[in-house]
Write a structure and sequence with these properties.
Blueprint: E1 4-15, H1 18-29, E2 33-42, E3 54-62, E4 69-75, E5 93-101, E6 109-112, E7 118-123, E8 135-144, H2 148-157, E9 163-170, E10 185-191, H3 201-204, E11 208-214, E12 232-241, H4 243-252, E13 259-260, E14 265-267, E15 270-278, E16 284-296, E17 301-304, H5 316-319
Parallel strand pairs: 1-4, 5-7, 8-11, 12-16
Antiparallel strand pairs: 1-12, 2-3, 3-4, 5-8, 6-7, 9-10, 10-11, 13-15, 14-15, 15-16, 16-17
Length: 333
């Protein structure tokens, strides 16, 4: 039994105005492919929404330069809440997303977006579709952890990040201007060694996880006493094949799935199966086995992945049909 990690499909961001956030990332970071926009109840996520079914408005935006997308997520029936305690670098959970950049001078540069969400430029030679811009899609995330060895076991043995690119301890200059960034950290950057990819793997490209453990203070949990979907990075999502095998592997090392749709779900015109598993500190990792993706809605055209060889990437021309979803103007807020 085996499974394939095709790459990071998207990172989830809890926001207070989904369309406003989409418009900013469209204009400023090249996420101009609107794969879907959907309003529906999040009926399977009650474990993280105080046992209540919450309605939500979600958009999935992609950047054809290459990399994962953004799932921009807004509660429809409550005001999302900010982090309870002031954020400090190294708090437990997703601290920043990594965005691809074509200029090596931007490698490992950190910046804060307009909604207090940190992002790190990460130099990458991978370009799926040259769109004449420097910024690509999501390449990974920086995740605060409380016990590095325990977290390494999860990310290496479940998600296959078997290549340790860096493992350093110290005070890091690039963290210095972030709240809490002057602390002492252990910093481990993980990648994949020669992994197989299928489906949309060529678009998603290589990915990396950066785990940071603060060593001279006790970190707070970013989502302590808050709901999934409140403000900030809510999950990191991987596009995978072989959900049952991955679920068995996670369970074998003590990480049972917390959510499993177990059957096809419907998010507008995209369909598949999804599950959620927690890393050792409770950071939510979403796993999606995509079954179909819309190409051109007016004609009812879809990419059907369910019967394809999971180790065979889709032809480039087929993936590039996602450009039919390009938004050249702002959405009405």
């Amino acid at each position: 039994m085996s499974y394939i990690i095709n790459g990071i499909q998207q990172i989830g961001i809890g926001v207070s105005n989904a369309r406003e956030v989409f418009n900013w990332y469209r204009k400023n970071r090249g996420f101009d492919i609107l794969v879907f926009e959907d309003v529906a109840p999040a009926s399977l996520m009650t474990a993280y929404t105080n046992g209540e079914i919450m309605n939500r408005h979600a958009l999935l935006a992609m950047n054809m330069q290459g990399g994962g997308g953004l799932e921009i997520w807004q509660f429809s029936d409550r005001d999302p809440e900010p982090q309870k305690k002031a954020f400090q670098w190294g708090d437990l959970g997703i601290n920043a997303m990594k965005l691809r950049h074509t200029n090596p001078e931007y490698h490992r540069k950190l910046a804060q977006g307009p909604w207090h969400n940190w992002m790190q430029w990460t130099y990458s030679e991978h370009i799926f579709c040259n769109s004449n811009q420097n910024s690509g899609g999501v390449m990974g995330a920086i995740i605060g952890v409380s016990n590095m060895q325990r977290s390494l076991k999860f990310y290496q043995e479940v998600l296959g990040f078997d290549n340790i690119k860096n493992d350093d301890i110290g005070v890091f200059q690039d963290f210095g201007y972030i709240p809490g960034g002057n602390s002492k950290f252990r910093r481990v950057i993980l990648g994949h060694n020669g992994r197989k990819v299928g489906g949309f793997g060529k678009l998603l490209g290589p990915c990396e996880i950066e785990l940071i453990q603060v060593l001279d203070r006790t970190p707070n949990k970013i989502y302590e006493n808050r709901l999934w979907g409140d403000l900030g990075y809510i999950h990191l999502c991987f596009d995978i094949s072989g959900m049952d095998c991955l679920k068995s592997r996670a369970k074998a090392i003590g990480h049972d799935f917390k959510v499993d749709s177990a059957d096809s779900f419907d998010m507008g015109k995209a369909a598949g199966r999804f599950g959620y598993v927690e890393d050792p500190d409770g950071t939510l990792i979403e796993l999606v086995e995509t079954h179909k993706v819309p190409i051109f809605k007016p004609l009812g055209l879809y990419i059907n992945l369910k019967k394809r060889n999971p180790e065979k990437p889709l032809p480039n021309w087929m993936v590039k049909t996602l450009r039919f979803h390009r938004m050249r103007k702002d959405l009405k807020v």
